Structure formats: structure tokens, C-alpha cells
Amino acid sequence: MLVNGGLPCWSVPLSSLMLLRHRPILAIWAAQLLSQTGDRFFALAIMWVALQRSGPVAMGAVAIAESIPFIVMGAVGHRLLRRCASFGVLAGIDAVRALLVAGLPWVWATGGMPTMLGVVLVLGVFGAVFDPALGALVPDLVNPHKYLEAVALMDLTSRIARIAGPGLAGVLLMAAPITRLFTIDAATFAVSAATLVVLVRMTTGSGARWTRASSATQSTEYVRARSLLREYPYLSTVFAVQTVGFFLMALPAIGLPLLLARQLDAGPAAYGWLLTACGVASVAGSLAASHAVGGVFPVRFCMAWVVIGVLQVAIGSVGTVLWVSVFATMAGFVNAIIGIAMGTHLVSFEPPQRLRLLAVNYMVMRGAGTAGMVVVPALIASTAARGFVVGGTVLILSAAAGALLAASKMVAGKDH
Fold first, then answer.
1. For the segment 325-374, what is each residue's pLDDT rounded down to a tens digit?
2. What DSSP state is assigned to residue 223?
3. DSSP secondary structure of 303-342
4. For residues 303 and 307, what is the distance between their CA atoms, to the nearest angstrom?
5. CA angle 72, 74, 75 (to 5 degrees)
């Protein structure tokens, strides 16, 4: 059941930054900011080296190998996740990841692409355990009424890393070979592992209490996703809308460069500025989420996806770079709020349910996102503008139906 039924939407936008005054939060936030920046280095390096050594098919294989573990873990990995839900275990995972990433260039050179994909698959398994487990543990470092701020603060690390990571990598590559980025990423994992070890000592048993409580709760019974979805039926609707939304995330990822280059005669510079604007807007959305998150979660969440659909239709309907940039930037702002709204709601469950739902959410995001990257490019290759209009319309209808369904279930008294 929920710890709190709702979170205030009147908080100060920068209130999440005030949590950095607490040493455990500051430590984990700084370590994750560094680690996720290193992940940007890794993503750039592995895709570029895969393209150089094995061609574009290898790039797709890398993306799939990294995503499959998240899908499997969300579906059947709840027992493993439960055992790994402590800061000490996560420290060990990051230490092993540091060794694997540092050795990846050598493994790749000696074993070829199959061995490299095996290492990426193992890294994906560790990531599929680490990400939901950390997401479930961090909220217990703050009071329940600060969950929104904690989720927004951790979300901010990934958004800053997406902006700063590629730029910093570009600067580093001016003086070092691209394989050096693997070494730097390994170093960030090592720092994260050390921070997690220190965090165990800094906290007064927060991580240990969480693990003991969850073990006591599930000593004879595991939390199953199907049972949770039956108990809270609106979650099925929310995850269904999330699936459609993340499937169509391939539209901006693939469609924006196609639209700019083929239909608006814009060059790579325009695309680079557009990505920067979207990244800045997502950071602004993360900071402003406290004003937008709250109220009736399922309905507001679905309606936010309706807004994304409207913006996608608008992107495909306008005929200038300026207006495409405006609407794409607005979408970046709203997407940040959607992510924080979902994260805040899921962490408001009791720890065992929280961990299970976070794993399911990662499964939905990775599974739908990977499927979209496989299917959508072929559908929009001829005309990206029409793809935005059709895809946006599908998202509007799906999310609006989800909002109506969630509202009807609440009226019928089926939700908490």
C-alpha cells in the first residue's frame, strides 16, 4: 500500500537542491552524476568503435544486448533484485562494472565482436539490477514528504549528464584516443563503488533496515507484478500508456534529423543546437516538476502524454526550423515532468512493492524503446513529417483513452 496518497505541487522548484545539504544525499548524487557522465562516454565510445570495426549492424546489436537484461529482470528477476537491494551489494556491482569496462577494449581486440557483446550483455544485467535497486533505496534516505524532491534530484543527474557528457567527451577526444573513454568510465564506476561503501557507514543503517524489512516482508512470499496490478488496476493503464509513449520516442530520436535534413534543408549545426535546447529544457522541467507533479496521478500522467502527442503532431505540421525547435523543446520539458511524476508515484509504495514496480517500469521503458527503434525508422523513412503527425495522433488517442479509463476506475472506487 502507499505510504502517502499524494505529494504537494506547491513546493519551491529548487527545493530538491536543498537535499544536497544532507551528506548521504550529496554523496550519492555527486557519485551518480559522475557515473552517468561516464556512461555518456561509454555510449559514445562503444557505438563509434562498433561502427568502425563491424559496421552499423553491430551498433544495433550493442543496443539490444544492453536492453534485453532490463526486460528479463522486470519480468522474472524479482528474487535477484530483492537480494541485491542494499548499498553494499550495489557497491560490489559497480566495482565489477569498473573492471569489465576497463578491460573491454582488450577483450574486444582478442575475442572479436561476439565476446564484446557478451561483456555488454553482462554489463546490461548489472545495470538492470543496479538502476531499480538504487531507485528504491535512495528515497529511504529522506522523509516520505521529500520523495518528490529526491526523485527530481536523482533525475537531474541523468539530464545534466546527457548535456555535459558528449561535450566533455569531445574535448577529451581532442587529446586522447576514443578507447580512453572506456578507462574514464571505469574510473567513474570505481568512484561510485567507493561512495556506496562510504554511504553504508554514513547512514545509520538506512540501507540495512530496508533490506531487513523487505526480507521479513517476503520471507514466505514474493511480491509479484501481476498481484500488484490486480490490487492497483490503474497501474496497468499507466504502464500501457507509458509503453506507447516510449515506443514513439523513436520519432524524435530518428525523425528529427530526418525532418531537418530532408524536408527543412537544415544542417547538422541546427540539429546540434536543437539537441542542446531540448537538453536544457529537460533540466528546467526536472527543476520545475514540483509545480506540476501532484493531484490525481493516473489522469494527470496520461494527460501529460496527450500533451506530448499534441507536440509531436505540431512538429510534423509546421514547416520551419524555428517552430520545430520550439515544439521539440517544449516536449523535452514535459518529458522530464513525466519521468519524475512516474518515479515519485512508484517510490511512494512500501519498499518491496516499490522495487518490483520500478523494475517493471524499467522493463516497459527499455522494451518499448528498443522496439520503437527497430520498427519506427522504417515507417518514417519516406516522410518524417507524416510520421510525427500519425505517431502523435496515436499517442493522443491512446493517452486520452488511458486518462478516461483511469478516471472511470477511480469513480468506481477501484483505486486508492
1. 999 999 999 999 999 999 989 998 988 899 989 999 999 999 999 999 88
2. P
3. HHHHHHHHHHHHHHH--SHHHHHHHHHHHHHHHHHHHHHH
4. 6
5. 65
Report how far residue 189's alpha carbon sits from residue 183's, in angstroms, rounded to the nearest whole number.
10
Nearest of 63, 68, 133 to residue 94 by alpha carbon: 133
Distance CA 161, CA 32 (A): 10
The CA distance from 86 to 214, in Å, is: 11
**Kind and range of the H or E element at 404?**
helix 384-411
Which residue in the block uniquely carries the three cell numbers 541523468? 158
C-alpha cell at 321: 526550423
Residue reference for cell 493516473: 298
212-233: pLDDT as tens digits: 333 333 333 467 778 888 888 8
Read off the DSSP letter of residue 224: P
Specify the length of the chain in residues.
416
Question: What are the distances in angstroms from CA 286 to CA 83, 150, 197, 283, 291?
Answer: 31, 11, 28, 5, 10
pLDDT digits (tens, 9 = 90+) for 284-325: 888 877 655 555 788 999 999 999 999 999 999 998 999 999
Place of cell 496521478: 297
**Residue 68: helix, strand or coil by DSSP?**
helix
Task: Answer yes or no: are the C-beta atoms of 302 and 402 closer than 8 Å.
Answer: yes
Read off the amino acid at residue 224: R
Which cell is 386 given?
507524416
Classify residue 3 by its DSSP letter: S
